[in-house]
Amino acid sequence: MLRFLRSPLLASFALVTLAPAQPVHAQVAPRPVQTAEDPWLYKGSDLVHDDEWKFGRLSNGVRYAVRKNGVPPGQVSVRVRIDAGSLNEQDSERGFAHLLEHLSFRGSTFVPDGESKRIWQRLGVTFGSDSNASTTFTQTVYKLDLPTATTAGLDESFKILTGMMSAPAITQASLDAERPVVLAEAREQPGAQERLQDTMLGLMFAGQPVANRKPIGTTAALTAATPAAVKAFHDRWYRPERAVVIVIGDMDPAVLEGLVQKHFATWQANGPNPPSPDFGKPVAENNPVAASIVEPAVPPLAMMAIVRPWTVFSDTVIFNQKRMIDLVAIRIINRRLESRARSGGSFVGAGADLSDVARSANVTTVNVMPVGADWETALRDVRGVIADAQTTAPTQAEIDRELAEIEASMKQRIATAPVESGMKIADDLVEAVDINETVTTPEASYDIFKAAIAAKMFTPETVQAAAKRVFEGTATRALVNVHTPDPQLMAKVTAALQADVVANGGKRKALGNVSFAQLPRLGAPGKMVSRTPLLPELEIEKVVFANGVNLLMRKDSSEVGKVYVNVRFGGGLNALPTRPSPAWAGEMALVAGGVGKLGQEELDALIGNRQMGFDFDVAGDAFRFNGQTNKQDLPDQLRLFAAKLAAPAWDPNPVTRAKTAVLSGYAGLSSSPDAVLGRDLEKLLHSGDPRWGMPERETIAATTPASFRKLWEPLLGTGPIEVEVFGDMDSDATIKAVAETFGALKPRPASNAPVPLAAFPAHVDKPVVRTHSGKADQAAAVIAWPTGAGSAGITESRKLEVLAAIFRDRMIDQLRSQAGVSYSPNVASQWPLGMESGGKLIALGMVPPDKTDFFFQLARGIAADLIAKPVDADELNRALTPIKQMLIRQSSGNMFWMRLVEGGAYDPARVASVATLARDVATTSPAEVQALAQKYLRPDKDWTMVVVPGPDAQAGG
Fold first, then answer.
1. How do residues 693-747 score in pLDDT, each as one tens digit?
2. 512 — alpha (psi -120 to 50), left (phi > 0) or beta?
3. 782 forms bridges with which residues in the sheet?
4. Cα(476)–Cα(643) distance, rounded to whole angstroms?
5. Which uninterrupted H or E stretch holds 660?
6. Residues 6 or more apart in contact with residue 688 via CB below 8 angstroms
7. Residue 473 pLDDT greater than 80, yes or no
């Protein structure tokens, strides 16, 4: 159950940063341990059953679970889990589990090649998001989210899914068609990160199969694959007794159960049932304790791992309670590490994590990003903080702070459980099955947590013991990445790992009781001068205060316990300078700079046990603070945002930390085609305007706390304020809270600076060229056409989304499915509402270097065909229906309506366009699609770019 408190170890190499804990799944005794086989999920567990689920088992061994859920309305989500992943492969089969996943989606004995995608599109399914699959070390999961599901549509979908499992089309033709797609997916992996992951897996799991069983497989095994070999893998592992079918949605569970029984009961396995492979245990003897790599494209880092045997065998109350103590110890250590990093220590960031990985090991990891290249000092200092936690017990106040944050999160989960999406609930159950855990109710989770507190399980002594326990194991191993070769590096890593460290927790700052009373005073409450219906049919109101602040609000309790707050102020990108500036650091350092006399440490303590958020971003025509809260915490959420505008603090450390972190990873911005696009594409598409894209290294290095403040201080104090509050709140109380916060601010001066245009680049005869330093077999190709911007063209922007969807579907079919040249081509329409220019329709793909011309030929061919003739009715329907269904699903949430009307206090056209949304999309005709293509996809207006291997690219990745 404690997966809700854990972050997946292998998801990325991002450093662990302290974040509010996710809710804990657990239960309270008494309940005897289940010895019966059914309900199958709970065998060996004494956790409270989640009776919303109905569990069953078919005579052929297929296990299933069905459940009623109406979030979003009308949708049914299906997950089919096969208990086989890359760890089930033999040496000659490396990559077969993932290859089979691809082949299964192409077709089966029930559906011709490629037809399942088209059938599901007609039912409103978006390829890649609503229909997808994933292969891990231990499982393969097929996912389908069917919007506005009907019995007929579900019946057809179950027929397709059953065929995918029992009888996929594994022919020479399908293999020849799909193998290049899988190889393209492997080719598109970033080389430096891939090598880092390979080294990490090989070290951490030395002597175990998971060390060299990445799901993507090997080129040699995939190239040698034959239909007979792939079918042998399928017949061995795709068996009813290894399958779990999960169905949840807005339909009678009896109907869902009947569909499972109808379609999966006839599935029969081929051949004998083999035993599950042995995933092994960590072994210290004859295995390495250290590893090092030299990857300039990855920030310098040091990683320490303590490995132990897999521990999740029975999901019981006491197991969860003991693990909670371990995780509280980890949280305290992480908080101390974050405090050290914030104050300017030897590391930019550091954090510990406790994970159960691939049914192979229980692992404690410590990730450290040093300041500069001095990883030895950083690792020593981090180990000193850990040693201090082991030698000196934490205070009860430290423990209580962590418990208070966990409790607040669990209470919020209870409050919002009625609006938990069926997709997430289904995915949670899949994950539970995969790691031998169960699911229970949010109330039962909270009960076990409170029972552990009542039993005094969280004491300084028990948490100190946990701090020792989680850093003990079968083996301790370390990995270091540096930017310059060092022949003594391995010896240094081994020595650093084995060196004695002095417990050094640093000077712990006693925060005491931090309260909202310590925020700066805001003045007398503002006067409301008008309150009018903005969109009466949606119960959206507009309130204007005497100081010019506008409030847009919607009271809607359909998302119980959730209130969304969005504060728009100033001019956003329109207000930023068109010269290099410290604007790049805003999203990283502005909030962390503090409020009044409160720094980031105090702000963490202030909101840690409350349901609040504090995010900042930059839109085209406004800067934005946003967060999710609840009715009780809404007044203080608003006060926090208003105080940031009224009395921002300018702690220099966040700016310095942001600069250090970005410069540390700057070389990585040229390490792959993807990275180069992320660095340069948007700037190039705006004719070099520095408001977009990553700034030059020199601009980042020149940023100082003083220059950061000089730019951002006037931006925070200038321009109009629009507050949006949508959700489960009381309207009158919200008006009062806004009056006491934003209404109490002084009137803000308007900006008189002219708004600079965002110019689209001129047509080029030859693509703009950028190079990368990654794999020599990687390249990227981009083609873009200028479109429009601004709210006057909202209707046209919506119809352009339909054109982009048709273009994207053709690109996927022709570039991926037919040519096998690119795994993930994409086409998107971007129409900035808050700007006067800058819109575009853009297509891009990762391709081999010798296929960039093919990409442009294909893309221009599609554009020319869309210009020359109208699309047929079926193709338009397959593009329109998923868009319509997506809008229907999104419209059940308050965030959807808030985003539609944001900015509407100063731009009535945005509000007026809400009423035309459905019509704008649904009535799009073939003639309109053709007219838009003729208007915008002009060959004399397109702009192209390629990212190709540079002289420092690495052959073979």
1. 999 999 999 999 999 999 999 999 999 999 999 999 999 999 999 999 999 999 9
2. left
3. 844, 945
4. 47
5. helix 652-664
6. none
7. yes
- 931's tokens: 């007219």
CA dihedral 897, 899, 904, 905 (to 10 degrees): 90
The candidate with the shortest Cα–Cα distance to 137, out of 197, 180, 226, is 197
- C-beta of residue 302 within 8 angstroms of C-beta of residue 325: no
The C-alpha torsion from 82 through 83 and 88 to 94, rounded to 10°, is 30
Contact 24, 4 (CB under 8 A): yes
Altogether, the residues listed in the chain come to a count of 957
Given a contact cutoff of 8 angstroms between Cβ atoms, the answer to whether 304 and 496 are in contact is no
The half-sphere exposure of 333 on its side-chain side, counting CA atoms within 13 A, is 37
Distances (CA, A) of 161 to 178, 600, 805, 825: 19, 50, 25, 25
The one-letter amino acid code at 383 reads R
Q: Which amino acid is residue 352, in one-letter code?
A: A
**For strand 550-555 and strand 540-545, is the pairing parallel, antiparallel, or unpaired?**
antiparallel
d(CA 582, CA 713): 12
- pLDDT tens across 892-911, in order? 999 999 999 999 999 999 99
Distance CA 473, CA 468 (A): 10
Place of tokens 């704008």: 920
Distance of CA 166 to the CA centre of its chain: 32
* Distance in angstroms (rounded) separating the CA atoms of residues 763 and 786: 10
Per-residue tokens: 199 = 């080294």
Please state, in angstroms and rounded to a whole number, the distance separating the CA atoms of residues 575 and 731.
32
- Contact call for residues 936 and 783 (beta carbons, < 8 A): no
646 and 522 Cβ atoms separated by less than 8 Å: yes
**pLDDT, averaged across the chain:** 94
Answer yes or no: is pLDDT of 14 > 80. no
Q: How far apart are CA 906 and CA 405, in angstroms?
A: 38
Residue appearing with tokens 């003729």 = 934
Helix axes 705-716, 652-664, angle to 10 degrees: 110
For residue 777, give the nearest of 552, 549, 558, 956 by alpha carbon.
956
Helix 96-106 and helix 151-166, axial crossing angle in degrees, nearest 10: 140
Separation between Cα atoms, residue 759 and residue 321, nearest integer Å: 59
Task: Count the Cβ atoms, other than its own, within 10 Å of residue 950.
Answer: 15
The confidence score (pLDDT) of residue 28 equals 47
The residue behind tokens 């914030």 is 342
Q: How far apart are CA 307 and CA 911, in angstroms?
A: 56
Q: How far apart are CA 182 and CA 667, in angstroms?
A: 28
Q: What is the dihedral of CA 673, 677, 678, 683, to 10 degrees?
A: 160
Asked if 627 and 642 count as a contact pair (C-beta separation under 8 A), the reply is no
For the chain, the first-to-last Cα distance in angstroms comes to 39
Using alpha carbons, list the distances in angstroms from residue 392 to 389, 463, 499: 6, 10, 20
Both tokens assigned to 118: 């088209």
Tokens encoding 76: 């049914």
- Cα distances from 248 to residues 78, 80, 440, 443, 889, in angstroms, run 7, 12, 16, 20, 15
Reported confidence tier of residue 510, pLDDT bands at 50, 70, 90: low
DSSP 941: T
State the DSSP code for 80: E
Do 767 and 946 contact (CB within 8 A), yes or no? Answer: yes
Q: Under 8 Å CB-to-CB from 836, ≥6 apart: which residues?
A: 755, 757, 758, 789, 790
Within 10 angstroms of residue 18's Cβ, the number of other Cβ atoms is 18
pLDDT at residue 11 is higher than 50: no
pLDDT digits 0-9 by tens, 604-655: 999 999 999 999 999 999 999 999 999 999 999 999 999 999 999 999 999 9
The pLDDT of residue 938: 98
List the structure tokens of 865. 């065909």
Helix (H) or strand (E) holding 368, with range, is strand 361-370
Of the candidates 150, 279, 120, 164, the residue with the CA atom closest to the CA atom of residue 213: 279
pLDDT in tens, 315-362: 999 999 999 999 999 999 999 999 999 998 899 999 999 999 999 999
